[in-house]
Write the structure tokens for this entry.
Amino acid sequence: MSEKKRPGPVRKMVRPVYVVDGARTPFLKARGKPGPFSASNLAMGAGRPLLARQPFAAGDLDEAIMGCVMPGPDEANIARLLALRLGCDKHIPAWTVQRNCASGLQALDCAAQSIAYGRADLVLAGGVESMSHAPVLLAEKMVAWLSDWARARTATAKLKTLGQLRPAYFKPIIALLRGLSDPLVGLSMGQTAEILAHRFGISREQMDAYAVRSHQRLAAAQEAGNLREIETLYDTRGNFYAADDGLRADSTVEKLGGLKPVFDKPFGKVTAGNSAQVTDGAALLILASETAVNKWDLPVLGRIVDSEWAGLDPAQMGLGPVHAMTPIMKRHKFQLEDIDYWEINEAFATQVLACLAAWNDKKYCKEELHIRGVMGELDESRLNVDGGGVSLGHPVGASGARIVLHLLHVLERNNARRGMASLCIGGGQGGAMLVERI
């Protein structure tokens, strides 16, 4: 193992960091037009009931940190907007982070550091995204033309400028589509998933079977009431939203098999059915020091033990989880069976399957992860046990917070001790967090 890749000693928190509570909204599938909630209203939908049930007031928080990739034009520094709307004192600092798909996880990591190093005792942290409200932009030539038009003062100048206007200038730029593409390697996220399918020989049938299982697990979780972290949303028209609405409980491999590939036509394998859904949602957690836990007699869901961030080839960004989780596993001298439950965000079915294949591939482990042998075969009955992004959606700023919160509930439900949450990140990165139930 090279010196650069050594996992190093176990990183001990200067002060322990506890997760005491959390809440999320239902994840609402985008349906071709702006959804009923802006990002800030989604965050309020999770934050208001979360804080209302605490023994402390919003003004007792020391900090608020939110992950968000595409805030609206009236939502600059959405964490500050949220904190003030929730009733936090004006002196409480609030800031927003952006690490693509893992922005929510980054917010939790930043909050944990603030507490571990004594800068804070109570932090509200999480993520939000209203992907259906992603901006539609004007082309650069249209912006330049509008500038010329604004400077034209006389009727003659106006007519001359008007004559320079071209129909092509009206073609909009869809920010969501641009954001889901990597400008350096010239690939969409779906195309990077196709690369992984080819590299590890993952078939269309395997992808679709995984997608069906994700929907089945979400359906079972909803039926059993295992998504207790969800808070019902109410819109201004009297409608309510109580559950993740992207569920297709009647999914079958045969039905998904009829869908055409989206990213590599006509020969690809990645379809809308085996990819994460474009979704709106928010997830918030309250992190606390031991001092705050004792002061307010707070319940403890679990403890944040360790975290890791990793970089890799952007063209194979879906393998980011194994690059982030492996150093944590090595630092703590864990085998796969030492982790009771796993959450690997389902950006694409093939991306999760590729991560499992990579950990069981001797060549990949040696050349890319710089470890001897293989990590082994992960028990899929302990992975994403209540579904994931394929079935409930992936609001990019929120997913990192969601998987940590839900993982802690899974540990509690099953009287288990240890869990790992991880995501791939557009641009060629991976993030992971190790949590432990107290």
Summary: DSSP finds 15 helices and 16 strands in the chain. The chain has a mean pLDDT of 95.
